[in-house]
Specification:
With 89 residues, the chain is α+β, with helices and mostly antiparallel strands. It is built from 4 helices and 4 strands; from the N terminus they run E-E-H-H-H-E-H-E. The radius of gyration is 23 Å and the shape is elongated.
């Protein structure tokens, strides 16, 4: 059997290597996703050094933060917001 495209055999049939490559790229893209970090560390897919290095290269966007009063939210008034820098908008 000599298929025209490179294929890899799995128990459920054949999967194109291109599909496997795309899956591998998708997994790599999610490597640092905060929802997956703990699992990736436990499984050895991510090293603590890699995570620390990635975190060190993140920019500080705190100047764009906006604090919202929980009281304002519970009362339905979304206008009572204070920018993180303390200045009124």
């Amino acid at each position: 059997m000599n298929p025209p495209e490179a294929l890899t055999q799995v128990s459920s049939g054949f999967i194109h290597l291109r599909t496997m490559t795309l899956l591998s790229q998708a997994v790599e893209a999610k490597k640092f996703d905060t929802r997956l970090q703990e699992r990736n560390l436990q499984r050895g897919l991510l090293k603590p050094e890699e995570l620390n290095s990635q975190a060190a290269h993140l920019s500080d966007d705190s100047e764009f933060a906006e604090y919202v009063s929980l009281d304002a939210i519970s009362q339905g008034d979304g206008k009572k917001r204070t920018p993180a820098n303390g200045k009124s908008a």
